[in-house]
Amino acid sequence: MADPVVIERDGAHVAVVTLNRPAARNAVDPGLARALAQAVAETEADDAVRAVVLAGTGPVFCAGADLKVVSAGGADDLWTETGGFAGFVHATRAKPWIAAVDGPALAGGCEIALACELIVAGEGASFGLPEVTRGLVAAAGGLYRLPRALPRAVALELILTGGRLEAARAHALGLVNRLVAPGSARDEAVSLAQTIAGNAPLAVRESLAVARLAPDTDEAGLRAASAAARARVQASEDYREGPRAFVEKRPPLWTGR
After folding, report:
1. Active-site annotation holds for 131
2. Which pLDDT tens digit goes with each residue over 117-136?
3. N or C: which end of the chain has fewer CB atoms below 10 A?
4. Distance separating alpha carbons of residues 247 and 241, to the nearest angstrom
5. Helix 219-234 vs helix 201-213: angle between axes, to the nearest 10 degrees?
6. What does the pLDDT look like over 209-239, one tens digit per residue?
7. Which entry of 131, 166, 219, 237 is annotated as an active-site residue?
8. What region, left, alpha or beta, does residue 113 occupy, with left being phi > 0 and alpha being psi -120 to 50 degrees?
9. Phi, psi (5° rounding) for residue 242?
10. Alpha carbon of 73 to those of 21, 68, 76: distances in Å?
């Protein structure tokens, strides 16, 4: 039986994590949830990895929870203690993840994409939270992450109707960072990850940590978090390496320390 999640390396500093249940539209079952949680743990622990791409095998990014498991009473088995749904949506991650969405990202699949920092989508992709059409609730972050990512009226319509948002409109509304030809999302996401990975890894992680606080933290709290991030970066070797490389007109050699 094929692994439900595959981890590969693309270059020295980018990991590609692929959901690999194409016959089930990459729906989340307990095995996939455990495997994706393990992928988060492995990429977080690997100092060489600076950015991660999350893709899906086949024509569907992820159809969400495996309803066969849900109908059999196993919904709780799709969550892990630390990662939440799919072992991912509530996981503590310091490194940026980019969702490469070719095809539909629906229900929990949409919530997985929303939990990533960036989204690259093929023109045939779509996003939606159809839980209400099945008597369910999008409790894996979709009910609050979608209204943060889209205009409120658009997000509420999707949540209440269970309708889909096509990739082109998602891009126009700012949910999607880059819109590419069908079948190209993975390659474009890897290119974007390589750009991120070329920057100082500690500075990237500290910047991301502060930016994540922006929606829910007041100005004083954000100033304090920014000052703490600045102090940690200033104490690093990379803080000295960046200006030195600029003066010496050469590429910086980041150590992440």
Report:
1. yes
2. 999 999 999 999 999 999 99
3. N
4. 10
5. 170
6. 999 999 999 999 999 999 999 999 999 999 9
7. 131
8. alpha
9. -60, -55
10. 21, 9, 8
